[in-house]
Specification:
Its EC number is 1.5.1.5, 3.5.4.9. Pathway: One-carbon metabolism; tetrahydrofolate interconversion. Homodimer. By secondary structure, the chain is α/β, with parallel strands linked by helices. It has two domains: about 90 residues, Leucine Dehydrogenase, chain A, domain 1 (Rossmann fold, 3-Layer(aba) Sandwich), CATH 3.40.50.10860; about 120 residues, NAD(P)-binding Rossmann-like Domain (Rossmann fold). The chain is built from ten helices and nine strands.
Length: about 290
């Protein structure tokens, strides 16, 4: 049986440190970090996720602002709301709950978020920063995965990492962050031929396909590290846990693995954003002679 990579305790430490920093910022400047959440429509799962993030924000001393828009909201109306939040100095971070309804251009909506407030790491600016190793916010789930691997002393440099999935907010940035940590990265997806054979070459497997029990135990190389970034109905991940746990050296459970890390990084980056914006706001203007 493999060892579990549990994110709960590490996430709690991250949130506690974020709370300390939020309190220090408020004491020093009078500014409380504020995270605005935007929900379009009334999808029950999305509404639950938003409430959970708001509750965690409160525990971390981070203020929250909730914007709920009707399902028939147009792309233009959503973009206008995100521009409004981006221009509001009392809002330091913006989270657009995704997926949005199908008629909305999700990429246009993401790009309406000021990169300085993109604490969920969904803009092209954030992706470029991850790809080029420049300062910027990380996509929260991929960033949380890297923190979890580091906490469990998983050797990344020189390892072969196979990412299953290529979404712009999970699979693609996960590969970029692994590459930045000197892994050799293979992206796989729905058009990949001989997927099980490719996965069997991996030292690290990141499953992010959104299909329950998709990755089977006989796909894995003995001793591989398995990160299940999926969450499906019935608290089931993208990896067949029982089969994989008999082969892998380390594996994340669902729930309790990647999920807590995602929220913890979101809150940490919300405080980062508030600190950076507060510093900019109070920085004196220097007039050159």
């Amino acid at each position: 049986m493999s060892k579990l990579m549990i994110g709960t305790d590490l996430a709690a430490e991250m949130v506690a440190k974020a709370a300390e920093r939020a309190a220090a910022l408020q004491e020093k400047t009078g500014v409380q970090p504020c995270l605005a959440t935007v929900l379009v429509g009334d999808d029950p799962a999305s509404a639950t996720y938003v409430r959970m993030k708001q509750n965690r924000s409160k525990k971390a001393g981070i203020g929250s602002r909730s914007v709920v828009l009707p399902a028939e909201t147009t792309t233009g109306e959503l973009v206008a709301e995100l521009h409004k939040l981006s221009n509001d100095p009392e809002v330091h971070g913006i989270l657009l709950q995704h997926p949005v309804p199908g008629h909305i251009d999700e990429r246009a909506a993401f790009e309406a978020i000021d990169p300085a407030k993109d604490v969920d790491g969904v803009t092209m600016h954030a992706f470029a920063a991850m790809a080029f190793g420049e300062p910027g916010f990380r996509s929260c789930t991929p960033g949380g995965i890297l923190r979890l691997l580091e906490a469990y002393d998983v050797p990344i440099a020189g390892a072969h990492a196979v990412v299953i999935g290529r979404s712009p907010i999970l699979g693609k940035p996960a590969g970029m962050l692994l590459l930045a940590s000197n892994a050799t990265v293979t992206y796989t997806h729905s058009r990949t031929v001989n997927l099980p054979e490719i996965v069997r070459t991996a030292d690290i497997v990141v499953a992010a396909v959104g299909k329950a029990n998709f990755v089977r135990g006989d796909w894995l190389k003995p001793g591989a590290v398995v990160v299940d970034a999926g969450y499906n109905e019935g608290n089931v991940g993208d990896v067949h846990f029982d089969e994989a746990a008999s082969v892998a050296s380390l594996i994340t459970p669902v729930p309790g693995g990647v999920g807590p890390m995602t929220i913890a990084l979101l809150l940490e980056q919300a405080v980062d954003a508030a600190e950076a914006q507060s510093e900019t706001a109070v920085r004196p203007v220097v007039t050159l002679p």
